[in-house]
Amino acid sequence: MGPIVGDLIVVAGSIFIVIGGIGLIRFPDFFTRMHAGGVTDTFGAGLVLTGLAIQAGMSLITVKLLLILLFLWLTSPTATHALANSALEAGLKPKLDRQEEAPSS
Amino acid sequence: MKHTVGLILVLGGIWVLWSWHFTPLLLAFGVLSCACVLLIALRMRIVDEEGAPIHLPLRLFRYLPWLFWEIAKANIDVAVRILRPRLSISPRVIEVLASQRTDVGYVIYANSITLTPGTVSIHTEGDMISVHALTREAADGVLNGEMGRHVSRLESAK
To answer: What is the pLDDT of residues B84-131, one digit of tens each?
Structure first.
């Protein structure tokens, strides 16, 4: 039971990583692409590591995998923000939706 | 003082988890390295509520499950939008007020926004965070301030 559940979660995580990759190609500009990257960062990596932790059973490896996940989830938004902020500072303007921009501003 | 004790416990605990060797030599190395880190941190005067936020771990147990659920919902939403044949996105930039009192709370809030797919904090100025949102729904999700309230609850009550 345990190993199969772990396998399924790893596969699900891999699917989300592929979806994130597809989004990186399909989305129109730098800022929207970061959202696609976020899918890989959070759910992709999260599900793969959780699945691996389940496969490992309750052991020290499980604890270490979950700590890796914790550090990943602490550092990846910081890196994403640094990337987005420097793009903005460098003068890159996000492509906004034209039809809906007028009423909201 | 309580921050120093908290830092010692966390450093020691993490060292034991990483190593899990209990020979006298390695234990001595562990104590030595923890002591070095502690001395450097004390010299830098960063052992305070910000550098060693000991009030956080217990409250995080209430915040993290909620955050995980939000991230899961947002992930599925963004994944569906990626896979749809016609891209149904309407990117926008919004300004949101961070009412957290401490820098730690401010950072947790901005990072939580970024961690949730569909919203990325791209700029901070004073109390305002600029958020790039992938869709109107994602933008509304930040503007309703629910996440901000959850993060404010993490801050120490004094």
So the answer is: 988 888 899 999 998 888 888 899 999 999 999 889 999 988 889 999
Q: What is the pTM assigned to this prediction?
A: 0.85
Q: Which of A13, A30, A40, A6 is nearest to A93 (CA)?
A: A30
Phi, psi for residue A27 in degrees, rounded to 5 = -70, 150
| Cα three-residue angle A76-B121-B133, rounded to 5 degrees | 110
**Count of C-beta atoms within a 10 Å radius of residue A64:** 15
Please list every residue in chain B whose beta carbon sits closer than 8 Å to the beta carbon of residue A48.
none
- Three-state DSSP class for residue B44: coil
Cβ–Cβ below 8 Å for A36 and B92: no
Q: Return d(Cα A23, Cα B57) in angstroms, integer.
A: 35
Pairwise CB contact (< 8 Å): B122 & A36: no
Q: What is the largest CA-CA distance in chain A?
A: 56
Domain locations along chain A: 2-90
Decide if A97 touches B, using CB distance below 8 A. Answer: yes
Q: Could B90 and A100 be called an inter-chain contact, meaning their C-beta atoms sit closer than 8 Å? A: yes
Angle, helix B146-154 to helix B136-143, in steps of 10 degrees: 40
Q: Which residues of A touch B96 (CB under 8 A)?
A: none
Longest dimension (CA), chain B: 64
